[in-house]
Amino acid sequence: MSLASFLPLLKIQTALTDAGAWAKDMARQSFAVEEKGPEDFVTAIDRTLDRQLAEQFQAWFPQDGVITEENAASIQNMSEGFSRLWLIDPLDGTEDFINRRPDYSIMVGLLQQEQPIAGWILRPESGQLFYGGNDWGLFTAHGTEAAQPLVPSVTSGPTASYCPMLLGDRDQRQYGTAIQTAIPEAQFYTLGSFGLKVLEVIQGRAGLYLYLNGRVKLWDTVGPLALAKCAGLVCCDLQGNPLQFSLDALNPETLAHQQSIVIGWPHYVEALLPRLQTAIATHPESLYETAAS
Question: Which spans in the chain are helix H?
């Protein structure tokens, strides 16, 4: 049975589009902000969307588990034996949302037998939705318009003058100098949302996205990595091992990934991974020292 055959696609598109329109409107108003942890913020908007989307997906898929970022109790569903788990991030890139920057998103991912098989990423500021999954393909839609196929765009390079890479602000501060020394042709840039960074690679604006700081959680990764795999990207850790999504590969209390994350076009990963390994190996600090502290 095709993945798409059991999904209420129009309902999901409408729900995410409505959520995004509301988030966009609320971004221009005042709202409460709290700090959950060091450089980890939550707003009243996150919490409202979290509750609404969780209720909708649980109603559509009563036999599945639902895990959301702002409902800590829902993490328990990871160990309840569900064959399918829905992971919901109501606002990915909350700092961008707080600071009225456009690079935040709403994300949903479907995990089946510990593998990402489908994902949705909505960019509220443009109203554009990206979605797809296994045996199904990639699509994009604007608002409630009919979806159109999304054709991945392979990035040219890497060459001595063209080597675009995504590296987040925290990782640039900690590892940027070492990576630039090992790969002097690398051109770093970043966006707020993990999902939007992955879309940059799928759409050919970067060859590789490297994530090292150990803060990213399962609801950040399942949707984007389902799209990345569907697009033909390599998804591995810094040692070239496949990314793992089972509970024993995550922090059981937070569902943070214990692996470094590399997402890129095969020719970029083949060319750059050995040099990235060298750069990080020479760095004096542990990859996840920041996350553990």
Answer: 9-26, 44-60, 94-98, 169-182, 194-202, 218-231, 266-281, 289-292
| Residues 203 and 102 placed together within one structural domain of the fold | no
pLDDT at 287 over 70: no
Other C-beta atoms closer than 10 Å to the C-beta of 190 total 18
Exposure class string for 224-235: b at 16+ Cβ within 10 A, else e: bbbbbbbbebbb
Single residue among 120, 149, 178 that ends a domain in this structure = 149
How confident is the prediction for the chain on average, in pLDDT? 92
- Distance between CA atoms of 201 and 261, rounded to whole angstroms? 14
Tell me the C-alpha distance between 271 and 236, whole Å: 14
Q: Are residues 189 and 141 in the same domain?
A: no
Domain CATH number, residue 185: 3.40.190.80
Domain extent for 257: 164-292
Residue pLDDT, tens place only, 59-111: 999 999 999 999 999 999 999 999 999 999 999 998 888 888 999 999 999 99
Residue carrying the six token digits 């999504």: 245
Q: Is the peptide bond prior to 158 cis by the omega test (within 30 degrees of 0)?
A: yes
Instruction: Please check whether residue 155 lies inside any domain of the structure.
Output: no
Same domain, 22 and 127: yes
